[in-house]
Amino acid sequence: MHNSITLENLRVLEAIRQSGSFAGAAQMLHKVPSALTYTVSKLEDDLGLLLFERSKKGARLTAAGTLLLEQGRPILEAVARLEESMRAFEAGWEPCLRIAHDVILSTKPLLQVVGEFLDKELPVEVAYDSVAVGGGWDSLISERCDIAIGVSGDIPKGEFEVQEIGGLSFLFAIAPTHPLALLGRPISAQDLREYPSIVVSDSSRILPKVSTGIFESKQTVKVPDLASKIAAQCMGLGVGYLPTHLIQDKLKDGSLVERECEIPRADLTLYIAWRKTKKGKGLRWFVEHLGAADWGLSRNEG
Amino acid sequence: MHNSITLENLRVLEAIRQSGSFAGAAQMLHKVPSALTYTVSKLEDDLGLLLFERSKKGARLTAAGTLLLEQGRPILEAVARLEESMRAFEAGWEPCLRIAHDVILSTKPLLQVVGEFLDKELPVEVAYDSVAVGGGWDSLISERCDIAIGVSGDIPKGEFEVQEIGGLSFLFAIAPTHPLALLGRPISAQDLREYPSIVVSDSSRILPKVSTGIFESKQTVKVPDLASKIAAQCMGLGVGYLPTHLIQDKLKDGSLVERECEIPRADLTLYIAWRKTKKGKGLRWFVEHLGAADWGLSRNEG
DNA sequence: CTTTCATTTCAAAAAAATTGAATGTTAAAT
DNA sequence: ATTTAACATTCAATTTTTTTGAAATGAAAG
């Protein structure tokens, strides 16, 4: 009475329904008709219900059989998916891949690559999350992601591998109405201290705080992300360096102007990073394709 | 390699995970440890994956085992539900019960009864739908429902059973500002023809149209349901008979006033109706409880 | 009336699952 | 250091379940 329903049972029922007869189903399943008679009768006995209306011209599901199969079909499908998952896992495809994306980079290339991956219809779940500037390492170290895109600086001690995706240069760009824009000479450290600067807060929780773009100015305005920083500088709220590739349009339409600044901002090389221990095919695939994507950065051919 | 995953396999995995050891799981399942070794090894061979990390102090799921069980657990649960469905079906509970509810009746008693039924936690899906006045028979005949509440009139030829739930009386009620309200004498057929009347459209598609409340007036306004008709008559848009039990509050607060009318409106006896062929326990239960519910109608004790 | 498909029954055979005893290993307890 | 208790595994024997093939049967079609 208990546990009488098995997957094989459901497959047999489905085959009989599809072919319309025990004989046809037997052929489908490479079995002999009497085997199906046995299987079905046993199940019918166990359930105490007639599952098929047998005639000499075939067999049709009864209401009970329909009920059973209607609910059973999705179960069979789930099992089939599960089997595919296991096969994929066995072949080296991890069940889930989490990508952390630094907001300093555009999401477009990432989405494009993710889209390409989804087209392969693998049973690999892809999750991605944006992290604040510099948050990639943190996300990787605390195992909140498997791949971090757009990390920079020193590689934290531990088992990580990286691949360069390009260089990031900065321009000192400010609103044309800002007093420092009208100075007529290179901006000095002294000048800077006279005005507020805009700082992107770092969400990093494990790594020590990295001060990105702080020049010890009189006041600082903390904003949650780079887009806010750009917006704030366009409004003349403050000044600071901004990534060249993100402000091309602002420079073109005059919302921002470039100025020379005595305090230099070093170019940054950005990487994709992941744990050496992770060897899934999905990770490999993503590293390869994300590395080849056009992130709009300066690249040294090599 | 194919179809290596069975429900029994999943149950074994789950038992081992729960108890933390093959030995414990064997006890849970009333088997001998070597049986589980056999089962698990076979599955591991088939999948080509190690499912458990065996130590001398027990067994822990590997990543592959976790993946398998994580996806397998919901499958086991679905199968358990399916088995319960079949048991309930075998015991006479139909898998789905559709109730048509005539808008002339309040939904409150119905919802109360449905709530009571749901408390029993049976694997019976309950669907209910409101139908226009007189639409119950139609819904029943065309098999869009199993039980119709609030049908009236002749029982259509065919295999139906009914149970009375009470009588419905009508009052000729109109807005106090309506000219007919100021007449000072019983309203005649002639009077009626001078003013628009409000008619609820009948959604019935199979039965011949029953004109409910049409007095051949100059104009008629068709509204989709009784609530609209009451609202329309409160606004003085038209006149007509309304079910006594639905306008008690309107009469009390003066939105409507009762007037005598020469054209009488016969009381209606309302029934619950269902097909004789349907013998499910759910139907029986609902007929019994819906029949005993208080629909706010007049009842002749018997 | 015969042929053709069907399903079922039944006994035999094959396959799969289960058992129990033996083996070996480890961690905790003495 | 030795013993004890828990545990997983292996293997051959056993039991259970599934599958088979042949024969029986019935109904519709030619």
Word description of this protein:
The structure is a homodimer of 302-residue chains. The first copy, chain A, has 302 residues and is α/β, with parallel strands linked by helices. Chain A has 3 domains: 7-90, Arc Repressor Mutant, subunit A (Orthogonal Bundle), CATH 1.10.10; 96-167 and 268-292, D-Maltodextrin-Binding Protein, domain 2; 170-258, D-Maltodextrin-Binding Protein, domain 2 (3-Layer(aba) Sandwich), CATH 3.40.190.290. Helices cover 37% and strands 21% of the residues of chain A. Chain A has 10 helices and 12 strands. In chain A, the strands form 4 sheets. The first copy, chain A, has a 5-stranded mixed beta sheet with strand order 4-3-5-12-6, with helices on both faces. The first copy, chain A, has a 3-stranded antiparallel beta sheet with strand order 10-7-11, covered by helices on one side. The first copy, chain A, has a two-stranded antiparallel ribbon with strand order 1-2. In chain A, strand 1 (52-55) and strand 2 (58-61) form a beta hairpin. In chain A, helix 1 packs across helix 2, helix 1 (7-19) packs across helix 4 and helix 5 (108-119) crosses helix 10. Mean pLDDT of chain A is 89; it is low at 204-211. The interface between A and B is medium-sized, with 28 and 29 residues. The structure holds a DNA duplex (30 and 30 nucleotides).
Helix content of chain A: 25-40%
* Anisotropy-based shape of chain A: elongated
Number of separate domains of chain A: 3
pLDDT average of chain A, as an integer? 89
Helix-strand pattern of chain A: HHHEEHEHEHEEEHEEHEHEEH
User: How many extended strands of chain A?
Assistant: 12
**For the terminal residues of chain A, how far apart are their CA atoms?**
70 Å
Radius of gyration of chain A: 31 Å
Enumerate how many helices of chain A there are, as a single number: 10
Low-pLDDT ranges of chain A: 204-211
Largest interface: A-B, 28 and 29 residues
Largest sheet of chain A: 5 strands, mixed
- Strand arrangement, largest sheet of chain A? 4-3-5-12-6
Query: CATH-wise, what's the superfamily of the largest domain in chain A?
Result: Periplasmic binding protein-like II
CATH fold-level label of the largest domain in chain A: D-Maltodextrin-Binding Protein, domain 2
Return the CATH class of the largest domain in chain A. Answer: Alpha Beta
What class would the helix/strand composition of chain A place it in?
alpha/beta
CATH architecture of the largest domain in chain A: 3-Layer(aba) Sandwich
Looking at the chains present, what oligomeric state does this protein adopt?
homodimer
